[in-house]
Amino acid sequence: MGLNGIVPPGVVTGKNLMTLFEYCRDNKVALPAFNCTSTSTINAVLQAARDINSPVIIQFSNGGAAFLAGKGIKNTNEKASILGSIAGAQHVRLMAKHYNVPVVLHSDHCAKKLLPWFDGMLEADEEYFKANGEPLFSSHMLDLSEEYDEENISTCVKYFKRMSAINLWLEMEIGITGGEEDGVDNTGVKADDLYTTSEQVYKVYKALSAIGPMFSIAAAFGNVHGVYKSGNVVLSPHLLGNHQKFIKEKEKSSLDKPTFLVMHGGSGSTEKEIMEAVSNGVIKMNIDTDTQWAYWDGVKEFYKKNEGYLQGQVGNPDGADKPNKKFYDPRVWIRAGEDSMMKRAAISFKNLNGANVLGDDWPKA
Description:
Strand content: 15-25%
Largest sheet: 8 strands, parallel, barrel
Structural class: alpha/beta
Number of helices: 12
Distance between the termini: 20 Å
Strand order of the largest sheet: 2-3-4-5-6-9-10-11
């Protein structure tokens, strides 16, 4: 088992991306998709992937991308989000090959009101494709789950035709993930609405597979964005297996898992629930809330440990004239946040059967 000679290091697109996701599906592996908001969080994820010897997905939300561009740039017409996404993608492309791991470069939830952001990224992809023969990103997500299914699917079809021309993967969402994510608030949704039906999933599969194979579906099975304790939300990952069986029978497919599935809102899920979802064809799981906390926790613990050295530029428990620069230097406490984030990222890899996916013979960086 391993990916040496099968998928190259660096950002993977097109055929290589398809090969990677097929490998994950066939070997019951899911890749953690970490939301990043800075070069610091990007680098932490890249190192975590290298250290655990596995591919990884790095993704930018609309708000996270705007933050990456800098709060000094107004987000009129999604300008900051577009610029931040492109800047983050360029950083990932430069660094991924040096960390020597395959990276799926992705953009997260894009609701209808955020489509100008999606359009801006697609234009950058098309421009990059003309120059390099591949898109800037590996994939993008359209989240039109707030709209009626007909509009959701028809909009995805329209964009997928354009994306397929430059070998871009599309992730879409059908059904509602609870909680709140990047301005989309589903906290008041009825519990019954948090479960996508097999008929809905098949409608998506039928429409998109007519265009190409490079798509995945985020089907709701009780998921909730944000943080919650295990048991507070009833997850039903067996429903994902039902979706696969439904499509297999309808299409008379030779594959037991004919479509690629994605898991959102996984914070607080049990290992058993996660692995059942992966066994049923989930090849990607979004990670955000838990790594946000981990990053902060690393900074917090650094402060608590060194509090006496962080009250002024000069003066600490070792003497009134002793300097504190080596404690308040951002490179020190930011690194503490990165270290903590990397430890939490390692847990996500392991929970998804994603440790050492590259294999023992993968060349070391």
